[in-house]
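I am still learning, so can you show me any protein sequence you like together with the matching structure tokens, please?
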Amino acid sequence: MLILGADEAAAFADALGSQRPGWVPLIFPARWLALPAIRAAVAELADLANGLALHETQSFEIDAPLLPNAAYTFTATIRRLSENPPRLIVQAVVATADGIACVRFQAGLRIVPRTAPP
């Protein structure tokens, strides 16, 4: 269970230039792609010792707005989409504590090789 902190949501909204107090940006769940469990799964699938994961695409389906200080579950699946070029797809659902889906989203990650500095 994740708590969507009001201060974190406000900082995210401010970074987007929002002037709406108490508003949670619709794309806020993308921030949860940085959760340690998600990062570890991406690193394992993408061989990040030899490459970098670049956020290439994203799409959102919003069923209900997210609310500050509310509890949510965040469920994600990550799979390899292609080998050449290497890509991963993350599909996630954000739901209320009662299991009602609020947001479904998908993020595409392209894996690019690390290169030595010139």
The beta strands are 2-3, 51-62, 71-83, 86-96, 101-113. The chain has two helices and five strands. The helical segments are 6-15, 36-46.
